[in-house]
Amino acid sequence: MEGYILNNMQIRAIDTSICRERRRFVQFPFALYYQTPLWVPPILSSMAVVLDRDKHPFYQHSDAQFFVAEENGQVVGRQAVLHHKPYCEYHHEATAFFYYFESIDDQQVAGGLFSHAEEWARQQGCTLLYGPRGFLRSDCAGQLIQGFDLLPAVGITYNMPYYDRLISTCGFTKETDYLSGTLTEDRLLTKRVHEISDRVKRRGNFWIKTFPSIKEVETLMPKIEAVHHDAFKNNLAYCPSTKIEFEMFVKNIMAIADPALLKAVMKGDEIAGFIIAYPNISKALQRTKGRIYPFGWFDLLLEKKRTRVIDINGVGLLPQYQGLGNNALLYVEIEKTLLVVLFIQPHQTGIMLLFAFLAGISVSTAHVMPEAMFPDVIDWDELRTKTRREGMYYGAINFMRKMSSAIATFLSLQILGWFGYQTPPEGVSYFTQPELTVSVIRVMTGPVIAVLLVIAILVARAYPLSRKRQVRIRALLLNRQDASRIAPSQWGEREF
After folding, report:
1. What is the dihedral of CA 144, 147, 150, 156, to 10 degrees?
2. What CATH architecture is 191-341?
3. pLDDT tops 90 at residue 369
4. CB within 8 A of 23, min separation 6: which ones?
């Protein structure tokens, strides 16, 4: 292995075929960020794949080298440098990437790492060193320069505040800024964004497709990849992925994805754009120290349900549909989903218990009470007519239920048609209706149902068979049965 020594510091390329060497490269950030509570460790199994030249698809077309800076036997810095050949061909330039830069606050360490990275890049025929930029198109690009008080999104860089100084002093200049934003319950999308979204819906040219399962998302991923390519092909530092690289990207996303947080904007049956969001599992990665096996996967799975933070990975729209308000449509749809997902916080058990209690009342009223009342009515009828007619009563009530269900379905569909209901395109399982239609649905399933329940309660209060009266009816029926068995010919009738 080649290397050079500055004072007591040595910088050298590691042999990635040796486990001990790989471990020194991977474990250094754990020591560096030991007292940094917001740093999130990488998934160790993913890092193992990156360092395995036989497994990672990047090495099928390109090459990389990994360096460590050591002082007195201790790692004090690390760096990876990549020669991404498809990127160079796509952009017609000879560029190398640097990635995984970590260092103590020492300009000599940083300068040595970048000098060695530049030397390796020149050996590959490259004339420009650019980064941070990773092995896959989905790897985080850039260095954090603000927001050190915030937990990073999954896969987004969190680094020491002094890195900007170290890198700039080595001669690098900033090319662009990548910005992140937040939505909270107190700070939602502006009224202007909602107005734009409503206008797009009213035109009826686009609709939002949601996904009931991860499997359906995976079937559409090739189409989403095509949209992603057309949407970003002119963007800074874009490069198409190979088939295997894209499959790895899909696998990584699907591992933490929630289908409710994935949306596509459709133009007829074709995808016009998409938005990808998923639960933030950073706290679980901190607890497990990046280890998925043997038991870390369970904590990560629970964190998908526990977390109150959702990461929006990105929005992509085909060029011909940009500037038409579809981005606002996607943002509003994801905001609606987030408000539902995040409405009840983990500690608000009182609200959850209240909803469960209210749901129990409605269920018992709708299913238990009518069944409890039928036998009383049948007893009363038997006393009046001397005939027990359970079959007739239950047949009548089932007929009434089916008839009322048919009438309610007919009226509901008629009302929805009056208020702009749109028939989903053929083959679509999920479809977003106009806002007016959604509002009518809410009224019909909320206030209207509540009014009908109040009417039912008032009618039930006029129910003539009280508990006391039912006891008398049962007693008279028993007396009648006893008299019939003892002296049928002397049995008489009694007014009730």
Report:
1. -20
2. 3-Layer(aba) Sandwich (3.40)
3. no
4. none
